[in-house]
Give the backbone structure.
Amino acid sequence: MKDAWAIVRKVVREADVVLEVVDARDPMATRSRELERMAAEEGKKLVIVINKADLVPREVLEEWKRVLSREYPTIYVGARERLGTRFLWRIIKRVTDKKPVVVAVVGLPNVGKSTILNVLKGRHSVSTSPVPGWTKHATLARAATWLKVIDTPGVVPRGEEEELAVRGALRPESLEDPVPAALKLIEVLRRKEPDFLKKYYGVDESDPLRALEELARRRNLLKKGGEPNVEEAARVLLRDWQSGELAVYFTPEDYGLRPRRKRTKEAARGGSGGNSSAASSAAREGPPPSS
Ligand SMILES: Nc1nc2c(ncn2[C@@H]2O[C@H](COP(=O)(O)OP(=O)(O)OP(=O)(O)O)[C@@H](O)[C@H]2O)c(=O)[nH]1
Ligand SMILES: [Mg+2]
């Protein structure tokens, strides 16, 4: 959506606090430096809300919270299941004394902005969907006498199509050819969970393109002549990633970031810590770069 950035800028100007929603499975890749810069330029307080907490273990959420808190106040919630959502209220009150306060909910497509507005509103007020780019307009809701919340359309960061699809920010249908994005997704997810295709689809095939073929065959996605429809298989994969069906996630260490930890036995024994080399090699190979 071309004018999403313009809509978001206007809303950020009207707001006192900006909630930047990111996906818990990969907060680094789904944050937007551009949005963060915009909030700073407009002189607005920004809070990072890590959403979809139900898809990631609590220790990893805590690690992300610690790492991101170095830059912005950060909380994690599972908006759909109403997990930890009382922290939304608390953090808004913590960052501003202003009453009434206007809060803008911003972020990439599909991270759960509209779901968060509904949580604050206390009932279903705006529609939500696993289809990225669902919300097209800014919508204001009064969540309390002192709190107005504005939902915004997801902004698409500049970048390669494949990169965006891997972040769940592009609809697979909108890609002319979804196969390169699916191949990229396979590559990225395999770094984290080498056997995910076997685990989720029963596909045991190391070559990524052949894996898509096998997935097509298993799902009976065939073209007229009977050969596997790899484009459809690619869409299945991208859609499952966007809908949270594939619960693969990344940790700060995958980005070479070290959350401060309590002293572990290993660290006490080994001084510099047992897994620092694993962390730095993960950083070298790198999951999807952040914007
Ligand atoms: N697992 C999980 N899914 C969630 C959570 N919050 C939202 N979702 C799902 O994520 C999808 C996108 O949610 P929306 O609230 O529509 O996301 P959005 O950021 O408003 O998306 P756009 O309007 O496209 O920018 C929907 O299928 C939601 O049900 C959550 O806490 N956990
Ligand atoms: Mg929305």
About this structure: The CA atoms of residues 134 and 231 lie 23 Å apart. The chain has two domains: 4-151, 160-291.
